[in-house]
Automatic annotation (TrEMBL):
Protein name listed in UniProt: Uncharacterized protein
UniProt source species: Nitratireductor pacificus pht-3B
Tree of life domain: Bacteria
């Protein structure tokens, strides 16, 4: 893990010298976020622990995050906290918006110093309502950086379809020669369609569920940005029940009303919700490397935005704009 961290810091030319950073603490690959920032020269890093529940432990997240920084010999500049306090806000230059750090509320934004950036660990268009108080950031001139996951250094063009194929394997649906309806109206479509076709699937892309026509579909893949209501609700599931009653519905991204799916006797994978707004499988399913590349890419993007570097189409760094924020869909 430490070798991957140093390699990514060099590859991305990440330099956070003198910056004070807030990142999530975690007991998985995300635990590396604090050490990546420290290796890149951050003056201090505060790691925020998740709330303890049946799925994860705040204590384990703190231990894993601290242990990795200790192996790197950089734990002296690391602090582990349960929440972001007001004093930490006032001295933070780079705040990574990722569970359990988020949501980044107005009260947090108002206390950030003049030189500060809120960093998304995903693409700008993937922002989910409530993740960051965008209006507060605008009012206080705090830019919101994002990372182009399809940039060659990050590798989303490879890991996005790979994660989709992992869902097929978990659902015990063979992608080879499968007839797949991909419900997707966003930039994920190109990478997912390509990956499925390379795996031997026959793919048709639909921007909405109600456009899926009757066919002998083997799988219906949902890849829509989550909203307040499930992206496949009772009405859409009724359409799918008529068009593809024997297909397995695979949740890549976007929530599904599983109660309604049971009513229509539809097969859904994962059978239990992974959590509101979450991906069907975590990126860590593919190992530590893609997670570390995305973390490092997000930090590098924030570094560039904080320095005032211009962003370009296809470049690594993105800045959230009004076009990326939806009031409704």
């Amino acid at each position: 893990m430490l070798s991957l961290i140093h390699g990514n810091v060099r590859t991305f030319e990440l330099n956070l010298s003198g910056l004070r950073v807030i990142v999530p603490a975690d007991n998985g690959s995300l635990a590396a976020a604090a050490t990546i920032a420290l290796v890149a020269g951050a003056a201090s890093v505060t790691a925020i622990t998740p709330q303890t529940n049946r799925f994860r432990s705040a204590e384990e997240a703190a231990e894993a995050t601290r242990a990795l920084a200790s192996v790197a010999g950089l734990s002296r500049n690391l602090s582990i906290e349960e929440r972001i306090d007001h004093q930490t806000c006032r001295t933070t230059n780079l705040l990574v918006s990722s569970d359990p750090v988020g949501p980044v509320t107005r009260s947090i934004v108002e206390r950030l110093p003049d030189r500060a950036v809120v960093a998304l660990m995903h693409e700008a268009w993937m922002l989910i309502r409530g993740e960051v108080d965008v209006e507060a950031c605008r009012e206080h001139d705090v830019p919101i950086s994002a990372v182009n996951e399809s940039h060659p250094l990050v590798g989303g063009a490879e890991y996005q379809p790979a994660l989709c194929l992992e869902l097929f394997r978990a659902a015990e649906v063979s992608a080879a020669n499968a007839a797949v309806a991909l419900i997707c109206d966003n930039p994920l479509a190109d990478n997912l369609e390509r990956g499925l076709r390379e795996a031997g699937a026959q793919v048709a892309v639909f921007p909405r569920a109600d456009l899926v026509f009757e066919h002998s579909w083997d799988a219906i893949v949902l890849a829509l940005r989550p909203l307040d209501e499930p992206r496949l609700g009772i009405r859409d599931l009724g359409v799918i029940a008529k068009a593809a009653p024997a297909a397995t519905i695979i949740q890549y991204w976007g929530d599904i009303d599983r109660k309604a799916a049971r009513y229509f006797e539809l097969s859904v994978w994962p059978p239990r919700t992974p959590g509101k707004g979450q991906w069907g499988l975590p990126l860590e399913t593919l190992g530590a490397e893609p997670v570390l590349r995305r973390i490092t890419g997000a930090l590098k993007s924030a570094q560039l935005v904080l320095a005032g570097a211009p962003t370009q189409p296809g470049g690594l760094a993105q800045v959230l704009t009004q076009n990326d924020v939806f009031d409704s869909e």
